Fold these 3 entries.
Entry 1:
Amino acid sequence: MSPSDNSIARFSLIVVWLLTALVSVMNVHGISNDLLQANAIIPASWHGWIIWGGAAIDLLLGLLMVIKPSRMVYLSALLMTVLMTVIASWVEPALWLHPLGPISKNLPIIALLWQLAKGA
């Protein structure tokens, strides 16, 4: 990727991470919680911790991409994306078949993060 492509990729990922943090917090008692409640795999007492913890991680990664973009930040984001994809697949595998692709969209995000990490 060229330097300008890296900037576009980085900016798009910053937006994804920061908006995901915001939306997660806004929906802590809405869709985020509904998704966890729909499956009894994860105890209800953990739901708040999972949502707030995920939002905090998303916020941190987004901010780090703004203030200190580096190979470590991109690889950390990649690891978290893979981890969240695995957890979401375990909790609600039907999300892979959702027409808006809430999980399948992680595949190009992983590819972008890999490219940015290689070029950092």
Note: Residues 3-119 form one domain.
Entry 2:
Amino acid sequence: MNDKKILIVDDSRIILKTLSMKLTSNGYNVITAEDGAGAVSIVRRERPDLILLDLIFPPDVGHGGGVCWDGLLIMSWLQRLEEAKNIPIIVISAGDPAKYKDHVLAAGASWFFQKPLNHDELLAVIRQTLGEFTAETQAAAATSPKAAA
């Protein structure tokens, strides 16, 4: 069993469930958060090895409509945490890559994937990012049209 811990941050319960199942079946320990506050709390407590982060979140109406956490704000908060230093972030978003991809990579994300996700390509990039190199992993990551290093 792999001891690598992956945090998935997404407001979609479907994405959380499907990615959790895929990653768990491939030997990863998975933790999930549905918003930025949850992500920050989990990173402090669990110290994951990698974060999969959505970009677009709904307004926080459940908590008085406070600051709207988007993926870029979450990345900014995480990058300031001592506990999050050197944790790679892979952005997964339904947002237009032409609008977001360069911006999130410049902000410190390792990769950008557009939804709907190709789980096999994402898994190959996760393995590569975590240093779990195989010939198949490198080939799949190199040919991924939706991802960028």
Note: The first helix runs from residue 13 to 25.
Entry 3:
Amino acid sequence: MALIEWKQEFSVGIDDVDHEHQEMVALINELYGELKAGQASKEKVSGFLGEIHAKIAAHFALEEHIMQQARYDRAAGHKADHDLLLDDIGDIMERFEADRYFKYEDVLSEHLRDWFTVHFRTHDSRLHKMVSA
């Protein structure tokens, strides 16, 4: 079972953005599956978290460039939501590296699934409508 099921409603209609969204979801689902199966070593989880953080940061840079080019009126709020997720992932990484116990699959569920599904439906959907108008 995947943590985040890709739905067509998540598509924003910008090919590069949609492709990166799907890649991020696949990576998060892969980590989640390994955690649930109990097959992830500390090194593997650390690598996944680093890769997730890097891919998300690069993706946000793309979206923020698109917003800047389009002179998007809600760019500041959209970027603030991006920053919030990057901070959350950074916190997860720090807690993991410090060996502080918590259920990683629960943290991923709470932070990533919920954040992505809401963000796709709200911020990214509105961005697409404004850019494609």
Note: The radius of gyration is 15 Å.
